[in-house]
Amino acid sequence: MANPFRIHQSSQGDISIFKVEGYLDAHTAPEFERAIQAEIDAGRHRLIVDCEGLTYISSAGLGVFMGFIEEIREREGDIKICSLVPKVRQTFELLGFQQLYHILDSLPEAIQKFTDTPRWEG
Fold first, then answer.
1. pTM of the prediction?
2. CATH number of the domain that 29 lies in?
3. Within a domain: residue 121?
4. In terms of residue numbers, what domain contains 44?
5. What is the torsion angle, in degrees rounded to the nearest 10, for the CA atoms of residue 65, residue 91, residue 59 and residue 16?
6. Does 1 reside within a domain?
């Protein structure tokens, strides 16, 4: 596989940050899903997915975002997405994700968005 999928998880205060790289598809989506579920199970509901290294996302990968957003928002949290490369951004925008998620240009902007708007206010 030319672009293996990797997740690097870190935190800043009560915000969990997932830096994802490579291909997020049907084969790798379960790994991403487990990482997010582990944070939810640990009581962490403020998540940022930094997609700077994400080169491809399939419907299975997009489904992971959709699978958790309602539960996270019910727990007063949110998922913010940042640093999308143009090809991946186009996929998110084509499917209307900007109507459901805060999509920011950089990780610092995503962190700041939690300060400015901790919850989704469409």
1. 0.93
2. 3.30.750.24
3. no
4. 6-116
5. -20
6. no
Contact of 48 with 80, CB cutoff 8 Å? yes
One-letter identity of residue 56: Y
Asked whether residue 96 is domain-assigned, the answer is yes
Number of structural domains in the chain: 1
Q: Which two tokens stand for residue 71?
A: 């539960």
Q: Is the dihedral of CA 40, 44, 46, 50 positive or negative?
A: negative
Q: Which amino acid type is present at position 57?
A: I
Q: Are 42 and 16 a contacting pair, CB within 8 Å?
A: no
- pLDDT, tens digit, 9 for 90 and up, residues 49-105: 999 999 999 999 999 999 999 999 999 999 999 999 999 999 999 999 999 999 999
CB-based contact 55:28 (threshold 8 Å): no
Which contacts (CB < 8 Å, 24+ apart) does range 105-112 have?
106/82, 107/17, 107/48, 107/50, 107/52, 107/82, 107/83, 109/82, 110/48, 110/50, 110/80, 110/81, 110/82, 111/12, 111/15, 111/48
Q: Is 46 a member of any domain?
A: yes
- Output the DSSP codes for 6-24: EEEEEEETTEEEEEEEEEE
